[in-house]
Amino acid sequence: MGMRNVTIRKNVFIVIVFIIFMSFFTGCKKTVEPVEKTEYMLGTICTIKVYDADKEEAITKAFTRIKNIEDKMSVNKDGTELDAVGDASGKNPVKVSDDTFYVLKKGRYYSEQANGAFDITVGPLVKLWGIGTDKARVPSKEEIEVKKSLINYKDLILDEQNKTAFLKIPEMSLDLGGIAKGYAADEAARILKENGVQHGIVNLGGNILAINSNPDGSPWRVGIQNPFEARGGVLGSVEITNKTVVTSGIYERYLEQNGKKYHHILNPFTGYPMEDSLASVTIITDTSIDADAMTKNIFYKGIDKGLEYVKTLKGIEAIFVTKDKEVYITDGLKGNLKISNSEFTLKNNK
């Protein structure tokens, strides 16, 4: 298959955070200028912004924690604990850190919740497509069939007592790209809070986590990514306090060949990118690791089943954006989501 016309675009899918300061600190309180730091980790741009005085060290500690998680389970690095488990697939269990074991346990739980539509053993298929890397290509049907046979979360055996992970079938491999970033955001926020931060924003390439409220007591205003723009354009915004906002969309990373775009959200059952009316799903809840996994799970369900599914969950709100630029929201967001881009239409706000 000729690759001369292939264009690979790796765009960081960033939700823009709008911070409103109508009245910063009242009374005799002194205004504190925010401290902000940005690093490239976990295959994306990571930014932490804090609105408390003298918290530079807290930000440094938070980034150290993110780096620690990246070294253990990133799909963008070699020599991780995930690599060790994959190398031992079909042979023997591998002892992993508490961090990795926790994320694997969460990942397997959400794989089960999605009945395999979201599956953390999708590694062989992700590597085959290579979307978001310089090795991206459209595989043959025969190659896809071989890799599909290696995907099954039920073949991941976790030993709670010994903290080991075992992939039963040779050549299986793990991919925590759909959940590890959420865990890193939660851990960064935990470190910041433990070091005295009371007001801040953690933004790991689209995984937004708000620590408490804006310094003036008002909610944070968070922009919802326009899934048809690669560099942070928004379609609207929501107000949140002490919540996380996580978006997954088809234009986050994609491969273009012969005029056709192949996005990075793969369907383990077909072996190809998801074919659906959805362009993006945003989840708003308390913890980023849960939101991260849920966006993929709900993406596979589509709008109707996705809306019904979210209604059965406590403390979860969702925003669905279709390829026709229609927006659907769960009941808890009615009156909250403000559409600012006239190209989009909110369909169920009543």
Automatic annotation (TrEMBL):
Name where it's found. Answer: Cell inner membrane
Recall the GO molecular function terms of this protein's record: metal ion binding; transferase activity
Q: What is its main location?
A: membrane
The record's annotation in InterPro entries points to: ApbE, ApbE-like_sf
Q: How does it sit in the membrane?
A: Lipid-anchor
Q: Which residues cross the membrane?
A: 12-27
- Catalytic activity line of the entry: L-threonyl-[protein] + FAD = FMN-L-threonyl-[protein] + AMP + H(+)
Q: What is its EC number?
A: 2.7.1.180
What keywords are annotated for this sequence in UniProt? Cell inner membrane, Cell membrane, FAD, Flavoprotein, Lipoprotein, Magnesium, Membrane, Metal-binding, Transferase, Transmembrane, Transmembrane helix
Q: Which cofactors does this gene product need?
A: Mg(2+); Mn(2+)
Q: Tell me how the cofactor is bound.
A: Magnesium. Can also use manganese.
* Residue numbers binding Mg(2+): G178, D292
Q: Which SUPFAM superfamilies match?
A: ApbE-like (SSF143631)
Its cellular-component GO annotations read: plasma membrane
Describe the task this protein carries out: Flavin transferase that catalyzes the transfer of the FMN moiety of FAD and its covalent binding to the hydroxyl group of a threonine residue in a target flavoprotein.
Family affiliation = Belongs to the ApbE family.
Any idea what this protein is called?
FAD:protein FMN transferase
Q: Which organism is it from?
A: Clostridium magnum DSM 2767
Q: What is the lineage of its organism?
A: Bacteria, Bacillati, Bacillota, Clostridia, Eubacteriales
